[in-house]
Amino acid sequence: MENPTMLASGILGSSGSMIRRVVEEGGAGAAVTKSLTIAPREGYSTPCLIAVKEGFINAMGLPNPGYKNFLDHELPEALKCGAPIIVSIAGSSSSEFREIAAYAEKRGAHAVELNLSCPHVAKMGLDIGADPEAVYDVVKEVKSFLKIPVYVKLGLSDKIVEAACKAEKAGADAIVAINTVKAMAIDIYSKKPILSAKYGGLSGPAVHHIAVRCIYDIYEAVSVPLIGVGGVEDWKTAVELILAGASAVQIGSAIAVKGLKIFKEVCLGLKEYLKLNGFSSVKDIVGLSHKL
Ligand code: RRO
């Protein structure tokens, strides 16, 4: 990667041309696709995304054209940007993760990210990620044959550190944390939950300090590289996740607020911060808050 910023899964990662723009115009160092499933999914009906005071709540419901469609028709375009493209996978069993990961590798993905963290789709995501033994089984299965790196994306649960340890034991090459946090918004006039799926995932500034805490705790427990996600909205929030232990950061909700310029803004601020503090590389500050 040319810089430590990445496009987070779920934002602009549904088409090859958008991914190219995020890298070529925005300057992201790498991009993660929207999570792919075996069969195409339409996702939940509207309302599926709302803006709240400190972020967004979404329940998109994993809309995607199915892995074959995406990997045949969108990935080749995305790969033209030259930056690493990481294919996000959602499944409800080890064999589903295996099937999609194998095809992603065949079609030229640089890595896969296993979505064990979506907080509001039943039997997928966090339903697996909050069960450390299930995390071990899925990661072990994918690692048993795949040559490209396997990132494991975990979400907020009481077991997140245990799950990260199990993922590492099963061979994960990196841990990504966190996803959105299960939440709800109620319309005081209709007196009903606003999202059609009732529950959704909270993202943006509201979850930043939860992400910092999770990265900090996971860094103490594992040796593989960590990628921090959650409320990165400027260079300061990126530096905070790096000091907690992240080697790179993913950016999602802030794109909806600031546009694609967020990537260059973070990189520039990070560079200045390193220079002003006498460091020569991001590596010098990864996990530094544990050492002082
Ligand atoms: O598609 C979604 O509703 C979704 C997914 Br897969 C995820 O991992 N996280 C999220 O907040 N929404």
UniProtKB/TrEMBL annotation:
Domain Dihydroorotate dehydrogenase catalytic: 2-274
Cofactor comment: Binds 1 FMN per subunit.
One Pfam match: DHO_dh
Cofactor(s) the protein requires to work: FMN
Assigned GO CC terms: cytoplasm
Keyword Methyltransferase found: no
Catalysis performed (reactions): (S)-dihydroorotate + A = orotate + AH2
Active-site feature positions: C118
Listed EC numbers: 1.3.-.-
GO molecular function ontology, one term from the record: dihydroorotate dehydrogenase activity
Enzyme class: oxidoreductase
Residues binding FMN: S9, K34, S35, N115, K153, I178, G204, G230, G231, G252, S253
Protein keywords: Cytoplasm, Flavoprotein, FMN, Oxidoreductase, Pyrimidine biosynthesis
SUPFAM superfamilies, sorted: FMN-linked oxidoreductases (SSF51395)
Localization terms from the record: Cytoplasm
Residues given in the record as substrate binding sites: K34, N58, A59, M60, G61, L62, N115, N179, T180
Associated pathway: Pyrimidine metabolism; UMP biosynthesis via de novo pathway
Gene3D superfamilies: Aldolase class I
NCBIfam families, per the entry: PRK07259.1, pyrD_sub1_fam
Role summary: Catalyzes the conversion of dihydroorotate to orotate.
Similarity annotation: Belongs to the dihydroorotate dehydrogenase family. Type 1 subfamily.
Protein known as: Dihydroorotate dehydrogenase
Species assigned in the record: Thermoproteota archaeon
Top-level taxonomy: Archaea, Thermoproteota
